[in-house]
Design a protein that fits this description.
Elements: E1 2-3, H1 8-17, H2 20-33, H3 35-62, E2 64-68, E3 71-76, E4 82-87, E5 91-97, H4 100-105, E6 107-114, E7 120-126, H5 127-141
Antiparallel strand pairs: 1-2, 2-3, 3-4, 5-6, 6-7
Helix pairs in contact: 1-3, 2-3
């Protein structure tokens, strides 16, 4: 079983921290007008950031994937474990996307679209693993 990309914990933590930035600005403004409310908001932000620092590195380490024998196995989730099996021959389309953050960290997201059901999204794979997975899918679809 292969882990996600080495920079995946950082990418997921940065994406999760994005909503905290406006809240921190709001807390700073609230501190001037209502110190108790602003202090409580800052305390909540500190708890939120501490929880992210604990959760995301562990969740990324728990995520694993493997594509052998034409079958993709994807396991994710720390508190609620989810496992997905998909025969690569059943996927009618596949693509690789990269956000600017992923591009900077050397990561990518691979989307596999099965004949029926939702697309399978493997986020924060290394670029090499994403290319290898698409190459395996392309080999099966000739």
């Amino acid at each position: 079983m292969k882990p996600l990309g080495a920079s995946a914990p950082l990418a997921r933590t940065l994406r999760a921290l994005a909503p905290a930035l406006p809240a921190a600005l709001l807390a700073g403004l609230a501190l001037r007008r209502r110190p108790v409310f602003g202090g409580a908001l800052l305390a909540l932000l500190a708890v939120y950031c501490a929880a992210l620092g604990w959760y995301f590195p562990r969740a990324v380490r728990a995520a694993r994937w493997d594509a052998t024998g034409g079958v993709l196995f994807y396991r994710r989730g720390l508190l609620l474990r989810r496992e997905t099996l998909l025969r690569l021959s059943d996927a009618k389309a596949a693509c690789r996307t990269r956000t600017p953050l992923q591009r900077a960290l050397g990561l990518c997201t691979v989307l596999l679209y099965p004949e029926s059901g939702r697309a399978l999204r493997l986020a924060d794979l290394s670029n090499e693993d994403g290319a290898a997975l698409l190459q395996e899918w392309g080999r099966l679809h000739g």
